[in-house]
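I am going through a labmate's work and have reached the protein record below. What it holds is a sequence and that sequence's fold in C-alpha cell form. Please read both lines and tell me whether the C-alpha cells look consistent with the sequence. Do not assume that whoever made the record got everything right. Thanks in advance; the entry in question is below.
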Amino acid sequence: MSKEITPENWLEPDGPMQYYVKVLPNGQIEPASVLDWLHLMLGPQLLPSVPQEVRDLFEGARGALIYGCFSYRLYFLGVTELQRVADAAVAHKYNQLNGPPSKRKFGPSFDDAIKWLAGEGVLQLAEWEWMPNARNVASHLKEAGIINPPMAIQVLEKITKMINALYQTQSQRLWQTLVTNGENEDVSHFTH
C-alpha cells in the first residue's frame, strides 16, 4: 500500500512504484524511473484554444498525477480531479455557446450540459455519458481508492482528447479525421 509521508521519505518513490518496469527497444527490462513517469504524464497537452481557467485546473490535476510517484494515493486524487476538469471544460463550452438558461443556481447539471452540447453537434454523447456518474461517485467517496499509474495515464490521455475535441476548430477536426499519427507514447511497454 502507499507509504505514510515523513520528512525522511517524502522524496523517495512510493513502494508500489518498484514493481513497474519498462521494456527497452532491445528487449531488456529495467525499472521505470521517476523521469519516465514524468515524461508520460507531460505528454498529453490541451490545445491553446481551451480556456485558461480549464488549463489551470488541468495542470493541478496533472500535478497530482506527476507526484503520484512519491505518494501512490495521488494517482486516484489526480484522476478524480481530471473528471472535475472535464466538467469545467463542458461548462465553459456551454456558456461560450450561450446554452439555454438553467433553473439551477449554478447552471445546468453536467448531464444536461453534455446532452445540450451533443444536440448542438459539439460532442458525441456516447463518448461523454459515462462521465457524470464517474464524477459523482468520485465526489462522494466513503474510502480512498487506488488507481495504478498506467490506468492514470490512460484516463489523462482520454480526458485530454475529450476536452480538446470540445475546443477544436473545424479544420482541426477535419485534420484529425484524416491523420491518425501523432499519438502519445504508448504506455503498454510499462508492465507491473
